[in-house]
Give the backbone structure.
Amino acid sequence: MDILLVASELFPYVKVGGLGDVMAALPRAIRALGADVRMLLPAYPALRAAVEIQGETAISPDLMGGGPARILKAEAPGLPLYLLEQPTFFDRPGSPYGHPEDLARRFAALAWAAAHLGRVGDAEGWRPQILHGHDWPAGLMPAYVAYGDGPRPATVMTIHNIAFPGRFPASMLDDLWLPQSAFTPDGVEFQGDIGFLKAGLKLADRLSTVSPTYAREIQLADGHGLEDLLVQRHGVLRGILNGVDRKVWNPAKDPHLFSHYDLKHPARRAPNRSGFQRSLGLQEDPHAPIFASVSRLDPLKGLDLVLDNVDHLVLHGAQLALLGQGEPLLEAAFHQAAQRHPGRVSAFIGYDEALAHRAFAAADVILAPSRQEPCGLTQLYAQAYGAIPLVRRTGGLADTVVGTSPETLADGTATGFTFDEANGWALGEAINRTLALFRDPIAWRQVQRRGMAADFGWESPARAYLDLYTTIPLRGA
Ligand code: ADP
């Protein structure tokens, strides 16, 4: 089976959030099962500089008004890549989602290039039977397939976060090389605008999202205006959990840690606590439970609930470390909390991959109080690293953390703490339960060990995606 994945992020070259991690692991995991999976991404400078370029093909003299576009054939370790080279759009530093003046046109260009590869194939005659787009940046790909000529590859869309719709004015239809006939509720129209994600979800042959619970929630109240469409299409929608890439997230080998450890040598975890405390200006208190969060500072991540509990945590002898960036108001609030409680609360405002790894290896508790969470990766990394996740029971958090209760402690299935209501009081109550267990080291270790032993590998998700592909009747390949 020949499959092209289309996305806007790929760790370690370009990563804004979990999408980058998923794209680094999922295609390789499907390849390991025998399918010829390749990826199409923009030729970002960081990516282009890091991979070996093997060939190039011109595809348009002026793609979406962004000038000449070529597809470069490249190779990342264990993963064949196609890179859309279009200097005006992609040869720029900074976030892939910056430069709003051409945001729509440049990801339309990516989606168009994917459809082109699906119709025409590459210079060597490789032509994917399935195009698999990820999130709104790839959303128009099924539209270019549906409204274009020639052979029609099958299409799949995966929702990693439905809160980002990729919504642009209807007046851009021509700029985006879409026919007037596409601007209908059955096409790309979304509440009077052009909706990139909406188009993908309406027109793709199969849909998936990154957890079974999120697949249900987005059909109910959390679909950001796409609920009805997803209810219509629920027969082709699957929820497939993300995994953990153990080559990157393994405390026995992680190059970022102060000390390596594993399930058999938990005591070797301790230097990671003291090293982390030192580097963040927290008191080197070996007894204080360390609560940490590694997160984009976005209202949907629910970190305002943590802010409501800063004093509560400190009063009970805990420490709090925040590693994140995003909403300026949240950044400022965490900064102020750290100033109010020097040595007990620390806020690192920024993005630091190495510090994130150290946080998982140092923390006793990783907080993920999200209002919505498609899958979530930090609660999985927490478990792999022996930190216990405390999460709101939503989306993938609900599917991957077994809350501690007398029953789950007795049968040994508990892996974390959960709460339901999205408010500071409910989180505070869950913090109290967490602190109570922390005072019982034997029970704590049991929960920690269960999490560390959990198998969140990529093989099972990769099989589920292959299975999804096999449900599509392939047209005239
Ligand atoms: P999302 O994709 O919504 O941002 P996920 O939990 O799925 O949330 O993935 C977040 C990823 O980004 C994880 O790999 C996490 O470690 C990383 N991350 C988030 N914020 C930071 C940060 N400030 N510094 C380093 N890594 C971060």
In short: Residues 17-19, 21, 161, 294-296, 323-325, 351-353, 356, 375-378 surround adenosine-5'-diphosphate (CB under 6 Å).
